[in-house]
Write a structure and sequence with these properties.
Elements: E1 16-20, E2 23-26, H1 27-37, E3 47-50, H2 55-67, E4 71-74, H3 80-90, E5 94-97, E6 111-114, H4 117-120, E7 137-142, E8 152-156, H5 157-171, E9 178-181, H6 188-201, E10 204-207, H7 213-220, E11 226-229, H8 231-240, H9 245-252, E12 256-259, H10 266-276, E13 281-286, E14 290-294, E15 308-309, E16 314-318, E17 334-339, E18 346-347, H11 351-357, E19 364-372, E20 378-383, E21 388-391, E22 394-397, H12 398-406, E23 411-421, E24 425-434, H13 443-453, E25 462-465, H14 479-482
Parallel strand pairs: 1-10, 3-4, 3-5, 5-6, 9-10, 9-11, 11-12, 12-13, 24-25
Antiparallel strand pairs: 1-2, 7-8, 8-18, 13-14, 14-15, 16-17, 17-19, 19-20, 21-22, 23-24
Helix pairs in contact: 1-2, 5-6, 7-9, 8-10
């Protein structure tokens, strides 16, 4: 335990650790509560955590880590089929949840342990537990399952520790930082970075519960120093800034604004910077790798990039045949492969998928396509399966076209895909949510707009107009769903 959270070892301090709404725990109270719960978990093979944005979820995960028992965070919004698959696949022996929570039928066969924070925080001092191997599994986090049932990525303790320490180096993250966010706690972003990150540093986290710009302004104006969010949140911030001087002032006073889980459009970067004088920085990671790259706090916050590899992370771009790119020129597209202590151990119960995910010499195939500038900055251009378009002999990344489209004043949202074309192989297709649905920008105008900003071969050949883009709970556009609109 001490290797993950030094601030909870020994005699923890009485300063703030966690706050959810008007409920909070100091480090001393968190250590007491988690240590009181941990003995009830020690004989469990795995524990499911009903991961609502509450103190109970945070205490449950910390207790499981204290006990050395892998935790499986569950999305409370999961459908019956998906939840049933995760429970069968991970086979937890009990479920941790807040008292009074109504759990779905998929969890009905499991022993239930209610986390009564008020009772646990009064149960005496912390208990000592033996050291736990850094290679022991800490969490089993299920992927989004866009190409089949979700797979459980087994994340070892060493991956959590090395990722959070690398981010501390990149972001100059210390015990004096207070993080505010409203991210869900069943993903890497909200749980590992957003809860375990502050706890490893000895700092504090304030969770908003539900995102709103008023909450962001309030917390950043009253001691919070860092904001974590996804592009949807920063888009709402950008929309609100022109008429909300209090929000602009609060953001201007923040030490660090971080966006992740999907690309933040350059247009929103620029709007936030213009209104606040502060640049949002981006980082890049995924469930299986935790964090791979980031713009550094002391580096250039270059909009549209995810920065440079974190300490300890090896990163390369490869051709379709696996040959590494030999020169980084900011234009050549390759698949990102990474290697380092930040990687997951395996897909639970899926040795075939685990083997297929790695090269023989240990590089993880991310499936993400990128270009890399000569100075090492990485720019993601999309997923290999959905965002790499091969048109007329060119490799085209959807992301840069989406950014170009979003610079058009008549475009509110944009997504780009490829579809078969008898002449080009694939043609570029744009899916547009117009700023004014009564008067959408013409397709030829959008094509010309892209061609003059990027290159003629990157212009959309087909344009579809929608009222909204389909997104998942992290704000990522679900491009496979777009194709059903055709």
């Amino acid at each position: 335990m001490s290797s993950l959270f030094p601030a909870l070892a020994g005699t923890p301090a009485p300063h703030p650790a966690l706050r959810f709404g008007d409920r909070s725990l100091t480090y001393a109270e968190l250590a007491t509560a988690a240590a009181a719960l941990a003995p009830r978990l020690r004989d469990a093979g795995r524990v499911a955590v009903w991961a609502t944005p509450t103190l109970e979820t945070a205490v449950g995960v910390v207790a499981a880590l204290l006990a050395g028992v892998p935790a499986v965070p569950l999305n409370p919004k999961s459908g019956e089929s998906e939840l049933g698959h995760i429970v069968r696949d991970s086979a937890p022996t009990l479920t941790l949840t807040a008292p009074g929570t109504e759990l779905p039928a998929a969890l009905g066969e499991l022993e239930r342990v209610d986390i009564d924070v008020e009772e646990l925080r009064g149960q005496g001092g912390p208990h000592a537990f033996e050291d736990i191997s850094p290679d022991s599994p800490a969490l089993v986090v299920y992927t989004s399952g866009t190409t089949g049932p979700p797979k459980g990525a087994v994340i070892p303790r060493r991956a959590i520790a090395t990722t959070l320490d690398a981010l501390a180096d990149a972001w100059q993250w210390t015990e004096d930082d207070v993080l505010v966010h409203a991210l869900p706690l069943f993903h890497v972003h909200g749980l590992i970075l957003g809860i375990l990150g502050p706890l490893r540093r000895g700092g504090a986290v304030r969770h908003l519960g539900r995102f709103d710009t008023e909450g962001v302004a309030r917390e950043l104006s009253s001691g919070a120093t860092m904001l974590f969010g996804v592009p949807t949140m920063y888009h709402r911030i950008a929309e609100a800034l022109p008429t909300d001087p209090a929000l602009a002032k609060a953001l201007a006073g923040a030490r660090l604004l971080v966006s992740g889980s999907a690309a933040l459009p350059v247009h929103d970067h620029e709007r936030i910077a213009a209104a606040t004088g502060r640049r949002v920085i981006e980082r890049y990671g995924m469930t299986e790798t935790l964090m791979n790259t980031s713009v550094r706090a002391d580096g250039e916050p270059r909009a549209g990039t995810v920065g440079v590899p974190l300490p300890g992370v090896e990163l390369r771009l490869v051709e379709d045949d696996g040959t590494p790119l030999t020169a980084y020129d900011g234009e050549s597209v390759g698949e990102i492969q990474v290697r380092g202590p930040n990687l997951f151990t395996e897909y639970l119960n899926r040795p075939d998928a685990t083997a297929a995910a790695f090269t023989p010499d240990g590089w993880f195939r991310t499936g993400d396509m990128a270009v890399r500038d000569p100075d090492g900055y990485v720019r993601i251009v999309g997923r290999k399966a959905t965002d790499l378009i091969k048109s007329g002999g060119y490799k085209i990344g959807a992301g840069e076209i989406e950014n170009a489209l979003l610079e058009h004043p008549g475009v509110r949202e944009a997504a780009v895909t490829g579809e078969p074309d008898p002449d080009l192989g694939e043609r570029v297709v744009a899916w547009i949510v117009p700023a004014d649905h009564q008067s959408p920008p013409p397709a030829d105008e959008l094509a010309s707009h892209v061609a003059t900003r990027l290159a003629p071969h990157k212009r959309p050949r087909t344009v579809h107009y929608l009222t909204a883009l389909p997104r998942n709970d992290m704000g990522k556009i679900m491009k496979r769903a777009l194709r059903t609109h055709d």
